[in-house]
Amino acid sequence: MTSLATTRDVPVLVVSSAASAERRINPSWTISQLKSKLESVTGIPPSAQVLNLRLPDRQQATSISAEDEDSTKLELWFLPPYAEIHVETTDPASSTVLPPSSAVPKYEMPVEIYSSLPDTVLAYKKSHQIGRFDPHAPESKERKVAEMWREIDAAAIAVGKRCVLSPSTTRRGTVAYVGLVPGIPGIGPWVGIRLDEPAGKNDGSVAGQRYFECDPQYGVFVRPDRVEVGDWKELGLEEDDDDLDEI
Q1: Residues 194-216: pLDDT tens digits?
Q2: Do β-strands 83-89 and 10-15 pair in parallel, antiparallel, or remain unpaired?
Q3: Is pLDDT of 164 > 70?
Q4: Could you read off the pLDDT of 88-98 as tens digits, one per residue?
């Protein structure tokens, strides 16, 4: 059998409620292939896994999901070395029962030894000046925020416009809010979407603060790069122009 591994493998940290481990994954894998491999690490069956990607220099997670996970490849997501893939479950009862972490003997490496090792997440962040090791962190944050606002202007994202959320073409809705959301970790503006279907995460409010009106699970806040505005009709209401002359 031919191995899926290639020289393009990327080291990542797999994190779940029951385990945390470093693994190497390949961007050519599909989401289904990744979930299958993560079952042995997390004890969560693929059908119940919810994957979120966290980058070293960002607090906000990005969902790793698609309508067709058997053919959607991981190369659609930016996967730098030592990014974190958080694995949650939609059905705790289906997960493999693991012993409590308190019952497992642990070795705690002294901080001074860990800090001196060359091939660790800490060493990578130091060498690439990520996070608290970035001497220009405040200026870098200001540039990121300014770039987000430029992206909003360039994409013509504005309240009242129809849109679709990438990478899907079926999660459609209307822009209902553009601006800061202090209740969500991370810097810069967010785009609040009133979805056509109950595929969201809220009702237009975050941490008790309301930003727009919608029914529960019809609201969602995303970064500007996931929003594409245009003439996106509600699914099921699209008309074929060729049939308009035939009554």
Answers
A1: 999 998 999 999 999 999 999 99
A2: parallel
A3: yes
A4: 999 877 655 55
Residue 145: closest CA among 191, 189, 100, 194: 189
> How far apart, in Å, are the Cα atoms of 141 and each of 29, 144, 241?
32, 5, 47
Residues 51, 62 contacting (CB under 8 angstroms): no
Q: What is the DSSP string of 188-218?
A: S-EEEEEESSS-SSBSSEETTEE-S---TTS
Q: Cβ distance 30 to 46 under 8 Å?
A: no
- Strand residues in the chain grouped as ranges (E): 10-15, 20-25, 49-54, 62-64, 83-89, 162-165, 172-179, 190-195, 205-206, 209-210, 219-222, 227-229
* Rounded Cα gap, residues 168 and 22, in angstroms: 29
β-strand pairing of 209-210 with 205-206: antiparallel
Cα(196)–Cα(240) distance, integer angstroms: 20
Instruction: Please state the pTM of the whole predicted model.
Output: 0.45
Residue from 52, 61, 60, 62 nearest 85 by CA = 52
Say whether 69 sits in a helix, a strand or coil: coil
How far is Cα 163 from Cα 157, in angstroms, rounded to an integer?
A: 9
